[in-house]
Amino acid sequence: MADGYDALTEKEKETLRLMARGHDAKSAANALSRSVHTINERLRGARRKLAVTSSREAARLVLDREGGPHENLADKDLGGDPRAGSDDQPGRRRKGAWLIGGICMSVLTAALLLFTPLATDGGGSRDAETAARDAAVESAARSWLALGDAGNWQASYDAAGESFRSANSVAGWAAASEQVRVPLGAVVARNLATIRYLNAPPHGYQEVTFQTRFANKPDAVETVTLVKEDGQWKVVGILID
Question: N or C: more exposed end of the chain, with fewer CB within 10 A?
Fold first, then answer.
Protein backbone atom coordinates (compact mmCIF):
# COMPACT_ATOMS: atom_id res chain seq x y z
CA MET A 1 0.00 0.00 0.00
CA ALA A 2 2.82 2.43 0.88
CA ASP A 3 4.50 2.10 -2.52
CA GLY A 4 1.17 2.14 -4.34
CA TYR A 5 -0.06 5.22 -2.50
CA ASP A 6 3.18 7.08 -3.18
CA ALA A 7 2.87 6.24 -6.86
CA LEU A 8 -0.55 7.88 -7.13
CA THR A 9 -0.74 11.26 -8.80
CA GLU A 10 -2.46 14.12 -7.02
CA LYS A 11 -5.28 13.98 -9.57
CA GLU A 12 -5.77 10.26 -8.87
CA LYS A 13 -5.85 10.93 -5.11
CA GLU A 14 -8.29 13.79 -5.65
CA THR A 15 -10.61 11.49 -7.58
CA LEU A 16 -10.38 8.67 -5.04
CA ARG A 17 -11.21 11.08 -2.20
CA LEU A 18 -14.45 11.92 -4.00
CA MET A 19 -15.21 8.23 -4.48
CA ALA A 20 -14.65 7.63 -0.76
CA ARG A 21 -17.17 10.39 0.00
CA GLY A 22 -19.89 8.68 -2.02
CA HIS A 23 -19.41 9.94 -5.58
CA ASP A 24 -19.53 7.73 -8.62
CA ALA A 25 -17.52 8.43 -11.79
CA LYS A 26 -20.22 10.65 -13.29
CA SER A 27 -20.72 12.83 -10.23
CA ALA A 28 -16.95 13.03 -9.66
CA ALA A 29 -16.58 14.24 -13.24
CA ASN A 30 -19.23 16.88 -12.59
CA ALA A 31 -17.56 17.99 -9.36
CA LEU A 32 -14.12 18.27 -10.99
CA SER A 33 -15.36 19.67 -14.33
CA ARG A 34 -13.82 16.78 -16.19
CA SER A 35 -15.21 14.15 -18.53
CA VAL A 36 -16.31 10.76 -17.27
CA HIS A 37 -13.67 9.29 -19.57
CA THR A 38 -10.94 11.22 -17.76
CA ILE A 39 -12.22 10.19 -14.34
CA ASN A 40 -12.37 6.53 -15.35
CA GLU A 41 -8.82 6.69 -16.66
CA ARG A 42 -7.65 8.10 -13.32
CA LEU A 43 -9.49 5.34 -11.48
CA ARG A 44 -8.02 2.68 -13.74
CA GLY A 45 -4.51 3.96 -13.05
CA ALA A 46 -5.16 4.13 -9.32
CA ARG A 47 -6.50 0.56 -9.21
CA ARG A 48 -3.42 -0.68 -11.02
CA LYS A 49 -1.02 1.12 -8.68
CA LEU A 50 -2.87 -0.04 -5.55
CA ALA A 51 -3.25 -3.59 -6.91
CA VAL A 52 -7.03 -3.75 -6.38
CA THR A 53 -9.90 -4.50 -8.76
CA SER A 54 -12.45 -2.11 -7.31
CA SER A 55 -12.32 1.68 -7.38
CA ARG A 56 -14.26 1.70 -4.09
CA GLU A 57 -11.56 -0.44 -2.51
CA ALA A 58 -8.88 1.91 -3.85
CA ALA A 59 -10.81 4.85 -2.39
CA ARG A 60 -11.10 3.11 0.97
CA LEU A 61 -7.34 2.44 1.04
CA VAL A 62 -6.57 6.09 0.33
CA LEU A 63 -9.06 7.24 2.96
CA ASP A 64 -7.54 4.87 5.52
CA ARG A 65 -4.06 6.11 4.67
CA GLU A 66 -4.99 9.78 4.89
CA GLY A 67 -7.42 9.44 7.77
CA GLY A 68 -10.01 11.69 6.12
CA PRO A 69 -13.67 11.81 7.20
CA HIS A 70 -16.64 10.70 5.13
CA GLU A 71 -19.01 13.44 4.02
CA ASN A 72 -22.78 13.42 3.98
CA LEU A 73 -23.76 13.72 0.33
CA ALA A 74 -27.37 12.71 0.72
CA ASP A 75 -28.71 16.17 -0.10
CA LYS A 76 -26.27 17.04 -2.89
CA ASP A 77 -27.00 16.88 -6.59
CA LEU A 78 -24.72 14.21 -8.01
CA GLY A 79 -26.26 14.16 -11.48
CA GLY A 80 -25.35 15.88 -14.72
CA ASP A 81 -22.46 15.71 -17.15
CA PRO A 82 -19.42 17.99 -17.00
CA ARG A 83 -19.76 20.95 -19.33
CA ALA A 84 -16.76 23.20 -18.81
CA GLY A 85 -13.05 23.00 -18.19
CA SER A 86 -12.74 19.42 -19.43
CA ASP A 87 -9.33 18.17 -20.46
CA ASP A 88 -11.07 15.71 -22.76
CA GLN A 89 -13.98 15.88 -25.17
CA PRO A 90 -17.14 16.98 -23.34
CA GLY A 91 -19.67 14.22 -22.91
CA ARG A 92 -17.28 11.52 -24.11
CA ARG A 93 -17.74 8.21 -22.31
CA ARG A 94 -15.29 5.33 -22.05
CA LYS A 95 -16.65 2.24 -23.72
CA GLY A 96 -17.15 -0.69 -21.38
CA ALA A 97 -18.06 1.28 -18.27
CA TRP A 98 -21.73 0.88 -17.40
CA LEU A 99 -23.61 1.85 -14.27
CA ILE A 100 -27.35 1.61 -14.02
CA GLY A 101 -30.03 1.03 -11.43
CA GLY A 102 -31.42 2.32 -8.17
CA ILE A 103 -28.01 1.97 -6.53
CA CYS A 104 -27.03 5.24 -8.20
CA MET A 105 -29.34 7.23 -5.98
CA SER A 106 -29.11 5.20 -2.81
CA VAL A 107 -25.81 3.61 -1.86
CA LEU A 108 -23.48 5.95 -3.69
CA THR A 109 -25.04 9.06 -2.17
CA ALA A 110 -25.60 7.66 1.31
CA ALA A 111 -24.33 9.38 4.40
CA LEU A 112 -21.34 7.93 6.21
CA LEU A 113 -20.65 5.26 3.62
CA LEU A 114 -18.35 2.68 5.19
CA PHE A 115 -16.68 -0.35 3.67
CA THR A 116 -16.16 -3.63 5.51
CA PRO A 117 -14.30 -6.12 3.27
CA LEU A 118 -15.22 -9.76 3.68
CA ALA A 119 -12.45 -12.20 2.81
CA THR A 120 -13.29 -14.59 -0.01
CA ASP A 121 -9.90 -16.22 -0.42
CA GLY A 122 -10.13 -18.51 2.60
CA GLY A 123 -7.89 -16.33 4.73
CA GLY A 124 -9.26 -16.00 8.27
CA SER A 125 -12.26 -17.71 9.79
CA ARG A 126 -15.88 -16.75 9.21
CA ASP A 127 -18.79 -18.08 11.12
CA ALA A 128 -21.36 -20.32 9.50
CA GLU A 129 -23.97 -17.58 9.31
CA THR A 130 -21.68 -15.24 7.39
CA ALA A 131 -20.57 -18.03 5.05
CA ALA A 132 -24.18 -18.98 4.35
CA ARG A 133 -25.12 -15.35 3.69
CA ASP A 134 -22.21 -14.88 1.31
CA ALA A 135 -23.18 -18.03 -0.57
CA ALA A 136 -26.77 -16.80 -0.91
CA VAL A 137 -25.63 -13.35 -2.06
CA GLU A 138 -23.26 -14.81 -4.65
CA SER A 139 -25.93 -17.20 -5.91
CA ALA A 140 -28.46 -14.38 -6.26
CA ALA A 141 -25.96 -12.22 -8.15
CA ARG A 142 -25.03 -15.05 -10.51
CA SER A 143 -28.66 -15.97 -11.17
CA TRP A 144 -29.51 -12.37 -12.00
CA LEU A 145 -26.49 -11.95 -14.28
CA ALA A 146 -27.43 -15.17 -16.07
CA LEU A 147 -30.72 -13.56 -17.12
CA GLY A 148 -28.74 -10.81 -18.81
CA ASP A 149 -26.39 -13.36 -20.38
CA ALA A 150 -29.48 -14.92 -21.97
CA GLY A 151 -30.77 -11.53 -23.14
CA ASN A 152 -33.89 -11.86 -21.00
CA TRP A 153 -34.21 -8.18 -20.06
CA GLN A 154 -37.82 -8.47 -18.90
CA ALA A 155 -36.97 -11.25 -16.46
CA SER A 156 -33.89 -9.45 -15.16
CA TYR A 157 -35.95 -6.29 -14.65
CA ASP A 158 -38.67 -8.22 -12.83
CA ALA A 159 -36.10 -9.96 -10.62
CA ALA A 160 -34.32 -6.73 -9.62
CA GLY A 161 -34.93 -4.79 -6.42
CA GLU A 162 -37.57 -2.14 -5.96
CA SER A 163 -35.14 0.80 -6.18
CA PHE A 164 -33.78 -0.56 -9.47
CA ARG A 165 -37.26 -0.92 -10.97
CA SER A 166 -38.40 2.47 -9.74
CA ALA A 167 -35.38 4.14 -11.37
CA ASN A 168 -35.73 2.34 -14.71
CA SER A 169 -38.37 1.22 -17.17
CA VAL A 170 -38.29 -2.15 -18.90
CA ALA A 171 -37.76 -0.38 -22.22
CA GLY A 172 -34.93 1.74 -20.86
CA TRP A 173 -33.26 -1.23 -19.23
CA ALA A 174 -33.54 -3.27 -22.42
CA ALA A 175 -32.14 -0.43 -24.53
CA ALA A 176 -29.16 0.07 -22.22
CA SER A 177 -28.51 -3.65 -22.13
CA GLU A 178 -28.69 -3.98 -25.89
CA GLN A 179 -26.23 -1.12 -26.25
CA VAL A 180 -23.68 -2.21 -23.65
CA ARG A 181 -24.13 -5.83 -22.61
CA VAL A 182 -24.82 -7.45 -25.97
CA PRO A 183 -21.56 -6.27 -27.65
CA LEU A 184 -19.55 -7.99 -24.91
CA GLY A 185 -20.60 -11.35 -26.24
CA ALA A 186 -21.04 -14.64 -24.41
CA VAL A 187 -19.57 -15.26 -20.98
CA VAL A 188 -16.49 -17.46 -21.15
CA ALA A 189 -15.78 -17.44 -17.40
CA ARG A 190 -17.12 -15.60 -14.38
CA ASN A 191 -15.04 -15.93 -11.20
CA LEU A 192 -15.88 -14.48 -7.80
CA ALA A 193 -13.40 -11.80 -6.70
CA THR A 194 -14.86 -10.20 -3.56
CA ILE A 195 -17.96 -9.90 -1.43
CA ARG A 196 -18.21 -6.75 0.67
CA TYR A 197 -20.75 -5.30 3.03
CA LEU A 198 -21.59 -1.63 2.44
CA ASN A 199 -22.86 -0.14 5.68
CA ALA A 200 -25.26 2.45 4.31
CA PRO A 201 -28.80 3.48 5.26
CA PRO A 202 -31.30 2.04 5.64
CA HIS A 203 -30.13 -1.55 6.12
CA GLY A 204 -26.82 -1.90 4.28
CA TYR A 205 -25.96 -3.52 0.98
CA GLN A 206 -23.87 -6.40 -0.32
CA GLU A 207 -21.42 -5.75 -3.15
CA VAL A 208 -20.27 -8.74 -5.19
CA THR A 209 -17.40 -8.38 -7.67
CA PHE A 210 -16.65 -10.87 -10.43
CA GLN A 211 -13.64 -11.11 -12.73
CA THR A 212 -15.42 -11.93 -15.97
CA ARG A 213 -14.12 -12.96 -19.36
CA PHE A 214 -16.51 -12.18 -22.18
CA ALA A 215 -15.98 -13.31 -25.74
CA ASN A 216 -15.30 -9.71 -26.80
CA LYS A 217 -13.82 -8.37 -23.53
CA PRO A 218 -11.51 -10.75 -21.67
CA ASP A 219 -10.68 -8.55 -18.70
CA ALA A 220 -14.01 -7.19 -17.48
CA VAL A 221 -14.99 -6.57 -13.86
CA GLU A 222 -18.67 -6.90 -12.95
CA THR A 223 -19.80 -5.29 -9.70
CA VAL A 224 -23.29 -6.21 -8.55
CA THR A 225 -24.94 -4.57 -5.54
CA LEU A 226 -27.78 -6.30 -3.72
CA VAL A 227 -30.24 -5.53 -0.96
CA LYS A 228 -32.46 -7.92 0.99
CA GLU A 229 -36.16 -7.52 0.20
CA ASP A 230 -38.84 -9.82 1.62
CA GLY A 231 -36.20 -12.31 2.68
CA GLN A 232 -34.53 -12.49 -0.74
CA TRP A 233 -31.41 -10.83 -2.13
CA LYS A 234 -32.30 -8.47 -4.98
CA VAL A 235 -29.99 -6.66 -7.37
CA VAL A 236 -30.20 -2.86 -7.21
CA GLY A 237 -27.12 -1.89 -9.19
CA ILE A 238 -24.70 -3.20 -11.80
CA LEU A 239 -21.34 -1.84 -12.99
CA ILE A 240 -19.36 -3.44 -15.82
CA ASP A 241 -15.85 -2.10 -16.28
Answer: N
